[in-house]
Amino acid sequence: MEIEKKMGNNRINDDELNKVSGGAEQVADSGNTVMHVCPNCSKDKKVSFKLASGGRAICTVCDYQIFL
């Protein structure tokens, strides 16, 4: 009985787990954008790029990826 009680106290409940994982998702999906010339679809004007992981930015017009 005593072992089961100790194990139960050490478990992370679902609410705490969601707080931890939700924070990372919010950072990734925050929608930060930069304006940059896209080599694929706009050679003369700047378009919006959504920032992604690994130093990448994705064109919001044609989904072309560049590295910043």
Give a structural overview:
The structure is a single chain. The protein has 68 residues and is α+β, with helices and mostly antiparallel strands. The chain has one domain. It is 35% helix and 34% strand. The protein has two helices and four strands. The chain has helices at residues 2-10, 14-28, and strands at residues 33-38, 42-51, 56-59, 65-67. It has a four-stranded antiparallel sheet with strand order 1-2-3-4, with no helix packed on it. Strand 3 and strand 4 form a beta hairpin. It starts with a helix and ends with a strand. The model is unreliable at 17-29 (pLDDT under 50).
Overall helicity: 25-40%
| SSE string, helices as H and strands as E | HHEEEE
| Helix/strand/pairing category | alpha+beta
* N/C terminus separation: 57 Å
Largest sheet: 4 strands, antiparallel
Taken together, the total number of domains comes to: 1
> Which outline best applies?
globular
Whole-number mean pLDDT: 72
Q: Per DSSP, what share of the residues sits in E-state strands of 2 or more residues?
A: 25-35%
Number of helices in the DSSP assignment: 2
Number of strands: 4
Using the CA coordinates, give the radius of gyration.
Answer: 21 Å
- State the low-pLDDT regions, or none: 17-29
Strand order of the largest sheet: 1-2-3-4
List the helices and strands and how they pair.
Blueprint: H1 2-10, H2 14-28, E1 33-38, E2 42-51, E3 56-59, E4 65-67
Antiparallel strand pairs: 1-2, 2-3, 3-4
